[in-house]
Amino acid sequence: MSTAVERSGRSAPSPEPVIPGLETSLWEQMLSPANLGRALRRVEANRGAPGVDGMTTAELRPWLREHWAKVREALDAGTFRPQPVRRVVIPKPGGGERLLGVPTVLDRLVQQAIAQILTPIFDPHFAGASFGFRPGKSAHQAVRAARRCIDDGLRWVVDVDLDRFFDRVNFDMLMARVARKVNDRDVLRLIRAYLEAGVMVDGVRQASVEGTPQGSPLSPILSNIMLDDLDRELWRRGHRFVRYADDLRVFVRSKRAARRVLDSVTGVVERRLKLKVNRDKSSVRHAREATLLGFGFYFTRSGVKIRVDPKVISRFKDRIRELTGRGWSVSMICRIDRLNAFIRGWMAYFHLAELSQRLRGLDKWLHRRMRQIRWKEWKRYSAKRHNLRKLGIPERTAREWAISSKGYWRIAGSVVLQRALPGLYWDGLGLLGLQSTWHRLRTTA
Asked: Which of 137, 144, 61, 143 is nearest to 106 (CA)?
């Protein structure tokens, strides 16, 4: 049963904690066999690309057996130097680019070990309305909390876009916030070393003067530490809000109030945190137009419902088009395996939304695209005629369609091919149905 705090979408800041483990230094806790073993398993499970040294996660454990003693000695002596992260640029779905930093697997191990000792110190005292990268919290919980706010009559949504948040974090301000609860100088020194490790771009190391690289195990907890002051200020002012990492939404009752909140929050972010709000991307919207983490909202007589952002549906179809392209020469088994992997992942996230009607149409569209592929695979007249007959199409009709000059899309939509290759045909080949997958996930969630 949800508590009143959970229903409100926010919680009061907790008092300053006492650092646990007084009998053992935080440094020793970080480097304990149990903590390092857990960190190693996490790094191996996450896999990921190699850093600047080219070492893979599969090679890390054997390397540590031979070299860990020297690494530990360097850590204790304060001579350990993190390697620069490898810069990776990926396109954002809505345009623009996102800069990721890929640390070496050794640095990922050490960062993960640090993150694991920082989490129990800081996380229990973060705001209840902060959902990103926290144990026991999820994007789905953030979306449900946003729906509760809207359902409670807070129909105007302030979308605060923190411009390149991960690239702009001020090192001194961040370290000051970490030092509020961490007094182990060795741990603080190592965290600072990771912030200043730099970036390798085209073989040249570039110094870092601000920012926490997206893609590093330490970045999520540091970002939440940095933005905790903002959460506390929003709570102090009595606002209902939801934050997932740097994705912030504040919910109010009127458009006029929303505009005031946007101005005041911008002031807090820019003056107190020394970050920058992207005024072009920040907005004030009615709840029916607002989005959060790929989801939107709509109103019914029974209350506020969750939908999928139309832009997400568009990107979903683009990816399906890639996987069902006629120019991609792979076996049908391989193609269906790739489609199923994508569908499982997409549905695991978006099944939260009301999608039944939309998925019925998408199932038909997907099957039509698959029929195009099968028709092309049959190629010659004899194969087309033979396969149509085998699938129950009368001889005369099979001959007529086997010689048809119509395009693939038209033929794939014909009654004849729908009858020959219905949904049950694709079910038999193991292709996941979109609507049936959604229903299964909804009933088991």
From this structure: 61
CA–CA gap between residue 9 and residue 210 (Å, rounded) = 31
Q: How far apart are CA 435 and CA 433, in angstroms?
A: 6
Q: Are 245 and 220 in contact (CB under 8 A)?
A: yes
3-state secondary structure of 286: strand
- Tokens at residue 414, please? 């014909």
CA atoms within 13 A on the CB side of 205: 10
For residue 72, pLDDT beyond 70: yes
What single-letter DSSP state applies at residue 123? G
Distance CA 171, CA 47 (A): 28
**Closest of 302, 400, 320 to residue 359, by C-alpha:** 320
Q: How far apart are the first and last CA of the chain?
A: 16
pTM: 0.86
Nearest to 374 by CA among 335, 317, 432: 335
Cα separation, 4 vs 240, whole angstroms? 13
DSSP calls for 125-154: GS-TTB-TT-TT--HHHHHHHHHHHHHTT-
For residue 253, what pLDDT band results from cuts at 50, 70 and 90?
very high
How far apart (Å, rounded) are the C-alpha atoms in residues 240 and 132?
17
